[in-house]
């Protein structure tokens, strides 16, 4: 059952990537912060509905919600700014490695067991991500980019880590309440940033909603299933599997849908990515 849920998570993350890729194409002056804020609001509403409107709030989980909300907002903000300040390839590479934070948290602090093949799978995944983002182009690395991409790396990884911490603390409880408060904080943070962008915010909101609604719904389902899976699969297996599975599915889309031609190094990276999926799940 848990591997069926894992497959759904991987598929919906890929769906989100496709939707996010399409957003700049439908808007003349895309407001990424507004789009991210609206996506977050839809994800929050998903948790309201999925709870059956039977919610029980307590101040005990609020610190976790604040932690996740700020991390989520900073990760989105940092990713946008990192892409503006530096290389797309290097930014994608660094943020991809953020999965190591929840993985190491599970291995070191939770003492989650992992087999020799599991370690091999993690190493193969790291190599795969590097090869997939390898570029021949010359890029400059600046201090502002290093600081911002470092923030993105930490906060992106902390999102999943805080979710795991909250689920352990409350024995799998308050999933909906925790995420509703967290996403409300993140949506507010992102909307404030959106107000500083140039353009007609009302017009852009109408355009953004067409993609933000399905994107937010997919995001909400992913977050809910990840919280469920953290109680079923060790972090050291779960997050590398999500990343490696995403690599395989992205290759399928890139090749057969977007007709992208990959370099020899990237093809090798995808093959290694498939090998890492196999190792992580044996």
Topology (SSEs and partners):
Blueprint: H1 2-26, H2 32-50, H3 62-85, H4 88-96, H5 100-108, H6 116-132, H7 143-169, H8 175-194, H9 201-229, H10 235-256, H11 264-280
Task: Write up this protein.
The structure is a single chain. Helix content is 77%, strand content 0%. With 282 residues, it is mainly alpha-helical. Helix 4 (88-96) packs parallel to helix 7. The protein is globular and about 50 Å long. The mean pLDDT is 85.
Which labels suit this protein?
mainly alpha; 11 helices; 0% strand; globular
What's the short story on this structure?
The protein has 282 residues and is mainly α. 77% of the residues lie in helices and 0% in strands. The protein is built from 11 helices and no strands.
Mean pLDDT: 85
How many DSSP-defined strands? 0
Shape: globular
Distance between the termini: 16 Å
Q: Main sheet, how many strands, which sense, barrel?
A: none
Radius of gyration: 19 Å
Provide the succession of SSEs: HHHHHHHHHHH
Low-confidence stretches: none
Strand portion: under 5%
Helix count, DSSP H or I runs of 4 or more residues: 11
Helix content: over 70%
Structural class: mainly alpha
């Amino acid at each position: 059952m848990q591997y069926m849920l894992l497959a759904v998570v991987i598929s919906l993350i890929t769906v989100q990537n496709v939707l996010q890729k399409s957003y700049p194409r439908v808007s003349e002056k895309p407001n990424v912060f507004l789009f991210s804020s609206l996506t977050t609001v839809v994800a929050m509403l998903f948790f309201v509905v999925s709870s059956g409107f039977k919610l029980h709030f307590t101040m005990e989980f609020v610190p976790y919600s604040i932690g996740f909300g700020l991390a989520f907002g900073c990760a989105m903000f940092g990713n946008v700014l990192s892409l503006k300040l530096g290389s797309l390839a290097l930014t994608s590479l660094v943020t991809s490695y953020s999965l190591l934070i929840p993985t190491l948290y599970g291995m070191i602090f939770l003492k989650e067991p992992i087999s020799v093949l599991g370690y091999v799978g993690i190493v193969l995944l790291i190599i795969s991500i590097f090869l997939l983002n390898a570029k021949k182009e010359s890029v400059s690395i600046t201090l502002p980019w290093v600081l911002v991409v470092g923030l993105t790396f930490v906060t992106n990884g902390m999102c999943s880590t805080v979710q795991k911490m909250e689920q352990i603390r409350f024995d799998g409880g308050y999933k909906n309440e925790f995420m509703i408060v967290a996403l409300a904080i993140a949506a507010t943070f992102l909307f404030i940033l959106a107000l500083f962008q140039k353009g007609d915010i009302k017009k852009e909101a109408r355009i953004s909603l067409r993609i933000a609604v399905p994107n937010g719904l997919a995001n909400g389902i992913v977050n809910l299933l990840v919280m469920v899976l953290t109680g079923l699969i060790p972090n050291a297996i779960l997050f590398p599997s999500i990343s490696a599975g995403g690599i395989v599915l992205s290759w399928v889309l890139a090749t057969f849908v977007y007709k992208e031609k990959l370099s020899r190094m990237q093809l090798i990276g995808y093959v290694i990515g498939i090998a890492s999926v196999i190792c992580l799940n044996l």
